[in-house]
Amino acid sequence: MKKYKSIDEFHKVFFSVWGYSVFVIFAKDFSEAAKELRLKHTIKDFEDTEAATFHTTNLSESFLFFRPKRHVKVSTIAHECWHVVHRMLDYSGAVLDNETVAYHLGFLVGAVCKLAGKK
After folding, report:
1. pTM of the prediction?
2. Host H or E run for residue 14
3. Are the beta carbons of 10 and 1 closer than 8 angstroms?
4. DSSP 8-state secondary structure symbol assigned to residue 37
5. Which of 77, 95, 111, 116 is most buried by its number of CB atoms within 10 A?
6. Cβ contacts of residue 91 below 8 Å, gap of 6+?
7. Quick check: helix, strand or coil at residue 72?
8. 4 CB contacts (<8 Å, ≥6 apart)?
C-alpha cells in the first residue's frame, strides 16, 4: 500500500455485499492527511477533535479519521462507525432496521478496534 507523509496508518475495510469501502486513517493532522489523500473536505474545523468521518459524494466510500492509536477510545470508534453504517445503508438503498444496522455496526466497530489495537 502507498506510503503517506502525514498518515501514520491507512487501512481499508470493504463491505462486499454493498460494494462499499471504508478507509480508516490514523493521523496526527487531519487537514494534512485530507490534503494528501486529495479529499475535497476541509478538516481545519476538526483540529481539536478526536475523530472525523467524511463521505465521498456520489461514491460508495467513507473515510474515518482517528488520532494515533494510543489516543483512540472505543466509544469514539463506535460513534464514528455509526455515521459510516448509516451512510452506507442509506447510499445502498437498504432499510435501516435494527438487525441490519446492528450487524454492520458490530462488524465495522470490531474491524476498526482491531486496527487500533483495542480489544
Report:
1. 0.91
2. strand 9-15
3. yes
4. T
5. 77
6. 18, 20, 55, 60
7. coil
8. 10, 33, 36, 37
